[in-house]
Design a protein that fits this description.
Layout: E1 19-20, H1 23-32, E2 36-40, E3 48-49, E4 52-53, H2 54-65, E5 69-71, H3 76-81, E6 88-89, H4 92-100, E7 114-118, H5 122-135, E8 140-143, E9 154-155, H6 161-175
Parallel strand pairs: 1-9, 2-5, 2-7, 5-6, 7-8, 8-9
Antiparallel strand pairs: 3-4
Length: 176
Amino acid sequence: MAAVTPWEIGNIFGPKTAMASKGEVVGRLMKAAKRPLIVVGAKILEEELDGKSLLSYVVELSKAGGIPVVATAHTLKPLLESSLQPAAAMGMVEITDRLRDRDWSLDGKGPHDLAIFVGITYQLQSQMLSTLKHFATHLKTVSLDRYYQPNADFSFPNLDEKTWIQNLDKVLGTLR
């Protein structure tokens, strides 16, 4: 795939950048992970995708893949109201710090091998992913947001809304 430009052009990311991936690839990656984790931010409450909320995509992803969710910001109550019991609720900085630890996991049964980020403001997610890229080499990271995140291991390229929805649907289809 051709080189992808970060959505935020001032994002200086270094020589190691994310592989721009399609929905099927991300879905297979999530399915193959032994201990994946989804980290959600407040934007899952704001994004409406062709009449379907990003929150509902997160709920479907979690249930289809049996993937625990960490609620951040003010997402706990809406997740509970949508019939999804998050595995934890903590701040963005706190979850980033814990994911750096090779021995940490939500349930104490071994470290997570894949962290999936969705609904987090671009700039904050960029810094979180940069931290994990440099200080959590045991962990693979994926950004499911519609803008390319060069500090992730895998990210969608910059997408229009229609293509983003198609990619999210392909991730769900692969997980089912």
